[in-house]
Design goal:
Helix content is 42%, strand content 17%. The chain has helices spanning 12-15, 28-53, 125-136, 141-152, 158-167, 169-177, 233-245, 260-269, 279-288, 295-306, 311-328, 330-339, 354-357, 361-373, 383-395; strands spanning 76-88, 91-103, 109-111, 185-199, 202-215, 220-228, 253-256, 275-277. The longest helix is centred in the N-terminal third of the chain and has 26 residues, at 28-53.
C-alpha cells in the first residue's frame, strides 16, 4: 500500500520567523516624504542642467519670432536620461538623471556632468557619514546593516561599510601631514597602547604611540598617533622627529609613562625639557616588585606620599618611604629611586595643576574608550585601520577632551629646583 505523507501546517511562529520587531512600524509622515524625494532630486538636477544650457527644457532658441523675451545662446543640447539608484537618509530611490552634450570652444562637444550628483555616486554624503558614524560608535561592519536596516531598507551591507570607511582615509592622510607651526602647545603627554591586528593573515600585537598636546588655553588636542611594532627608542624617535619636522615648537613640560625607549628618544630630541613620570605607572611598577601580601601596605604608603598637600610633606614622606622599604623589601625602594626627581616634577608647579600633571591619565582614558570601541572586533583588519580608527573617534566628536585642571596658570613655568633625593 502506498504511503501517503502530508505536509504539516506551518504555525504562526514558523511563518513569522524572518520578521523582526520594527518591521511593521509604518510611519505615514516618513512614507509621504520618501515618496516625494525622487521628484525633488530630479527637479534639482534638471535645474542644474537648465543653468548649464542657459535655457529651460523645451525652451526656444534665441531670435525665434514667438519669443517674448530673447533667450540666451544655447550652449548644448539634451539627449535623453538614464536611471540611477541613490541611497540617502531618505532611503533608497531610483531617479531619472537627464543627459546632455555641451559645446566646447574648439567646436566639439562633451558630456555634461552634474555637480550635485557625482559620477558613480550611489549614496549621499549624509548617508556615508551616518554609516561611518554608526561604525565608529562601536558596532562592526556586519552589524551596521541590521542597525540601519529600517532607514536604508537593508541596502547597506558589510562591503558598503568598508568602502565608506576607506573614504575617511583622505582626511586621515591630510591630518597626518598638517602643519603644527601655529599650534600653541606648551605641554605634551606621551604614552602607548597595544592592540591586536591582522598581519599576514595572523593576529599580531602592535603598539599605537599616542601624543596629546596641551594648548596655552588648557585644551587638550591629539597631535599624533602612529602604529609601530613596539615602544623602542627608534619608534618613539620617529614620532618625535615627525612632530618637529611639521613645526611643533619646543614644549615646556613632558608627561611620560616612564618607558626606557621614550626617555631615550626625548633626551635626543628635547634635552633639558622638564619631564614628569606618570605616578600611576610607577605605582604599578612598585607592586610588580613585591609579593601580593605587601601590595596594600605599599599602596597606602605610596598614596600618602604622592597625594600629600605640600611639596615639603611629599619630600618628607618620600624619604620615609625609601628608609622603610629598604629594610622591608629593598626592590620596592630601588624601584622608587630609579624614577629619581622626574616622579616629582609636578611639585615644581602650582598645586592646582598637580592633578593634571601627575599622570598620563588623559591618554589612558582614550585607550580605555578605544578598547571599548573595538571590543566587538577582537582583531582589527590592519595596523593602519587601528591608528585611523583611534583618530576618527576624536575627529568625529565621539570622544571629547576637556581642558586640563589648573589651565588658568599654564603660563607658570616649572621652578628650577629639583627634588632633594638623599633619603
Amino acid at each position: 500500500m502506498k504511503r501517503v505523507t502530508t505536509t504539516p501546517e506551518l504555525s504562526p511562529s514558523t511563518t513569522e520567523i524572518n520578521s523582526h520587531l520594527f518591521d511593521d512600524w509604518f510611519d505615514p509622515i516618513e512614507s509621504g516624504i520618501r515618496d516625494r524625494v525622487r521628484g525633488l532630486i530630479e527637479e534639482m538636477i534638471r535645474g542644474e542642467l537648465d543653468a548649464a544650457l542657459s535655457r529651460p527644457r523645451y525652451g526656444r532658441r534665441a531670435g525665434h519670432a514667438a519669443d517674448s523675451v530673447v533667450a540666451a545662446v544655447v550652449s548644448g543640447h539634451r539627449h535623453g536620461s538614464r536611471v540611477r539608484t541613490l541611497t540617502g537618509t531618505f532611503g533608497k530611490t531610483e531617479i531619472a538623471v537627464p543627459r546632455a552634450r555641451l559645446n566646447t570652444s574648439d567646436g566639439k562637444t562633451t558630456e555634461w556632468k552634474s555637480q550635485a550628483l557625482r559620477n558613480y555616486q550611489r549614496r549621499t554624503r549624509a548617508a556615508d557619514a551616518l554609516i561611518a558614524g554608526t561604525y565608529l560608535s562601536g558596532t562592526n561592519t556586519r552589524r551596521v546593516r541590521r542597525a540601519l536596516s529600517a532607514l536604508f531598507g537593508g541596502a547597506v551591507g558589510k562591503d558598503t561599510v568598508s568602502r565608506v570607511w576607506r573614504k575617511v582615509k583622505s582626511d586621515w592622510d591630510a591630518w597626518n601631514a598638517r602643519s603644527l607651526a601655529d599650534e600653541p602647545i606648551v605641554r605634551l603627554i606621551l604614552d602607548g597602547t597595544v592592540v591586536r591586528v591582522r598581519l599576514d593573515r595572523k593576529a599580531t600585537s602592535i603598539s599605537l604611540l599616542v601624543v596629546i598636546g596641551v594648548r596655552e588655553d588648557g585644551q587638550k588636542v591629539l597631535l599624533a598617533i602612529k602604529q609601530m611594532g613596539g615602544e623602542s627608542t627608534e619608534a618613539w624617535r620617529s614620532v618625535l622627529d615627525d612632530l618637529v619636522k611639521r613645526g611643533l615648537r619646543r614644549p615646556e613640560l613632558l608627561i611620560v609613562d616612564g618607558g626606557a625607549g621614550l626617555e631615550s628618544a626625548i633626551a635626543a630630541v628635547w634635552d633639558r625639557v622638564p619631564v614628569q613620570r606618570c605616578t600611576v605607572h610607577k605605582h604599578r611598577n612598585l607592586l610588580a616588585h613585591a609579593p601580593e601580601r605587601l601590595h596594600d601596605e605599599i599602596s597606602a604608603d605610596y598614596k600618602d606620599m604622592i597625594y600629600a598637600d605640600t611639596r615639603e610633606e611629599i619630600e618628607t614622606r618620600r624619604k620615609a618611604f625609601i628608609r622603610k622599604w629598604r629594610l622591608k623589601h629593598r626592590a620596592v625602594a630601588d624601584s622608587l629611586e630609579e624614577a629619581g626627581d622626574r616622579l616629582f616634577t609636578f611639585t615644581r608647579l602650582p598645586p592646582d595643576q598637580w592633578r593634571s600633571v601627575r599622570t598620563t591619565n588623559a591618554i589612558e582614558r582614550l585607550h580605555e574608550e578605544f578598547k571599548r570601541r573595538i571590543k566587538t572586533q577582537t582583531v582589527l583588519p590592519s595596523a593602519d585601520t587601528a591608528a585611523m580608527l583611534f583618530w576618527a573617534l576624536l575627529a568625529s566628536g565621539q570622544i571629547n577632551m576637556r581642558k586640563v585642571d589648573g589651565w588658568q596658570g599654564l603660563a607658570t613655568k616649572p621652578i628650577d629646583q629639583p627634588f632633594e633625593l638623599a633619603a
